[in-house]
Amino acid sequence: MGSELPLSERVEAILFIVDEPIGLVALAAAVGAPVPAVRQTLEALGDDYDGRGRGPRRGFELREVGGGWRLYVREDLDPVVAEFVGGQAPARLSQAALETLAVIAYKQPVTRSQVASIRAVNVDSVVRTLLARGLITELFADSETGAINYGTTDALLQHLGINSLDELPPISPLLDDGADGFDEGTLR
């Protein structure tokens, strides 16, 4: 488990990956060390990050919040982070957006109503979000109905780290992929 590595490094590694405060007991279990040793390590790391240790004050700090420990950006650096984040598109997609994106990726070209039929919910706002993020694009309008058909973009391939849609994992053979009844616009 890496228990031969220094405790401070093991604790720091866990603190860097948690997205919610982690309790002292859970942290001790994660690094395989006694609670008192982990408590002492947290205090030493906090002092180090605050510039009371071997090096300068860091741009982040260790806080105990809500019964757990987590790294946070220092409050006086909030404007720097806000400016950076404000210039970036949000990195995360909602579950609804991910599901919609998956349907489009596997079924393209596909219309909004076909996606809505597969997901059994209205997808209008999600499709607008995916378009705005550049993950999908309008491919063409159906000559009979005028319905716009959507497909994925190269930006999605880059985000997924693949070169083509052929590299998408196969849809599980245990799951109904929606092929039956797809052309009719409804699932059976």
Automatic annotation (TrEMBL):
One Pfam family matching this protein: SMC_ScpB
Record keyword Cytoplasm present: yes
Keywords assigned by UniProt, alphabetized: Cell cycle, Cell division, Chromosome partition, Cytoplasm
Bilayer-crossing regions: none
Highest rank taxon of the organism: Bacteria
Protein name: SMC-Scp complex subunit ScpB
Organism name: Microbacterium sufflavum
